[in-house]
TrEMBL record, chains A, B:
Record domain HTH asnC-type: where: 6-67
Membrane spanning residue stretches: none
One GO cellular component, as annotated: cytosol
GO molecular function terms attached to this record: sequence-specific DNA binding
Keyword Transcription: yes
Keyword entries, A-Z: DNA-binding, Transcription, Transcription regulation
Gene3D superfamilies, per the entry: 3.30.70.920, Winged helix-like DNA-binding domain superfamily/Winged helix DNA-binding domain (1.10.10.10)
Organism: Trinickia symbiotica
SMART domains registered for this protein in UniProt: HTH_ASNC
Protein's name according to its UniProt entry: Lrp/AsnC family transcriptional regulator
GO biological process terms, semicolon-separated: regulation of DNA-templated transcription; response to amino acid
Cross-referenced PROSITE patterns: HTH_ASNC_1 (PS00519), HTH_ASNC_2 (PS50956)
Length: 163, 163
DNA sequence: CGTGAAACATTAGCGGC
DNA sequence: GCCGCTAATGTTTCACG
């Protein structure tokens, strides 16, 4: 988690790869005015230092039939003893469950009244209803759930601001 | 936006590319028990149909100095006439501004009391404070702002559930 | 940092199931 | 229709100047 020194060329490379992670090294080298080998060395360094976490394909939720994006605020049971295992808290149980639910694409512990914010992709309200009833509310650690829904998404990028 | 037919092999290819978007066609072909050419034909078809929206590198916010993730609920002025242009609503103005703010990585129109939910990456509270004062609250269409902050992120994936 | 050569990957055309 | 072979072209990668 140490800070990595990035010069202007590194930042340009990152900006390019955030837009298109499949560009050939040659193409990137050209755009940053470098020959292929030093450009590749920089990219490897960025990968090994963890600045670049990985490369992925982004899919279209609509085309996969995932027509509904929900944000779910969850509050957990605060008494820790109910799990039967010393050292296993309600938070631990809940986080493990979240990892296993494919509909949940993000889960953050939050400030404010609710404990967690979940980002959930489902096909429709029927699917969402099943998810809340059978998974979320069925979970022993969950005491309260408040949902809102995206009517339309105007911006949705994986590109982080590079200072 | 028409539905695209996906068979079991297509779905396996999508699952693989959601995890690692830089695998070679040969490697993918091996994993799905196909030879390179039909595998490539399927991938091209998925790209051209828009099921695959693109390929990107994912960066680590911490390593870029983006230590604070905020969720900002925004309420807009409802009277449309104040812009001076017929046909240009407060919503239009706000959405255009959102596109130009690099700190905002997602913006959804939402059900519930607030109109928009923004996902915002900033370096720290000072940066966030400047963003809210100088950009958000300074915008003529914004009438109210409510923020919460991620204490910790337990899940954060771009991989959508494939039915 | 750049050059060059070997290893590897992509892609189009064609024949077969 | 969808698969797999082959062969030409383009790309990555590494030792070395």
């Amino acid at each position: 988690m140490a800070e990595i020194e990035l010069d202007a060329v590194d930042r340009r490379i990152l900006a390019i790869l955030q837009e298109n992670g499949r560009l050939s090294n040659q193409e990137i080298a050209e755009r940053v005015n470098l020959s292929p080998s030093p450009c590749l060395r920089r990219i490897r360094r960025l990968e090994e230092s963890g600045v670049i976490r990985g490369y992925v394909a982004l899919l279209d939720p609509q085309k996969l039939g995932l027509g509904l994006l929900a944000f779910v605020n969850v509050r957990l049971e605060k008494r820790g003893g109910a799990t039967g295992h010393a050292g296993t808290t309600h938070a631990d149980l809940f986080r493990a469950a979240v990892q296993a639910w494919p509909e949940v694409v993000a889960c953050h512990a939050m400030t404010g009244e609710m404990d967690y914010l979940l980002r959930v992709f489902v096909t429709d309200m029927a699917h969402f209803s099943r998810f809340v009833q059978d998974q979320l509310l069925h979970h022993p650690s969950v005491v309260d759930v408040k949902s809102s829904f995206a009517l339309e998404s105007f911006k949705e990028t994986t590109a982080l601001p590079i200072r």
